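Readers of this paper often ask what the protein records in our data store actually look like. Such a record has a labelled line for the sequence and another for the backbone structure tokens. The tokens are whole numbers drawn from a learned vocabulary of local backbone shapes. We quote a single record here, exactly as it is kept in our systems:
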Amino acid sequence: APVAEVEAPAPRARVGGAEERAARKTVARIDRQLERIAEREAALNAEMAVQVADHERLAELSKELSALHDEKEALEMEWMEAAELLE
């Protein structure tokens, strides 16, 4: 019986040097931004724990925390896209 030929998956195109450098810069920039966001989130959570009786301030802090969360999600998506180029 003839042996069926199995096609190997096409090798992934190698990212060019300039593209790879740009992706590495993007990943490093986003890592720094995510660290800044984590620090700000911790500060907001600490302030919220202190401001439990001030409902207006808690609402402001909660709004800022929500905006940070949205920014974090967008950065994480951008990070993943850049990291894929480096695989």
DSSP finds two helices and no strands in the chain. The longest helix spans residues 17-50.
